[in-house]
Write a structure and sequence with these properties.
With about 70 residues, the protein is an alpha+beta fold. The chain is built from two helices and two strands, in the order E-E-H-H.
Length: about 70
């Protein structure tokens, strides 16, 4: 993913100790424009279709650094 998206700075797939079936995707983008572009890629469209049967829910949390001014 990072190789295909210049604005993607980090991408990790995580599970929790409490529920190994719960999957978290941790992604960092250079800016809002890079994040918006990511959502419009063919890879994202394919991802949504392929993972829909596996997802009980999807929750997005947009975060910023606490020290951003």
């Amino acid at each position: 993913m990072i190789a295909n998206e210049p604005g993607c700075k980090a991408f990790n797939i995580l599970t929790t100790d409490e529920d190994p079936n719960r999957v978290l995707l941790y992604e960092v983008y250079a800016d809002a424009a890079a994040f918006d572009a990511h959502g419009k890629t063919p890879d994202m469209a394919n991802y949504r279709v392929e993972t829909e049967p596996m997802a009980a829910s999807r929750v997005r949390h947009l975060c910023g650094f606490a020290n951003e001014g």
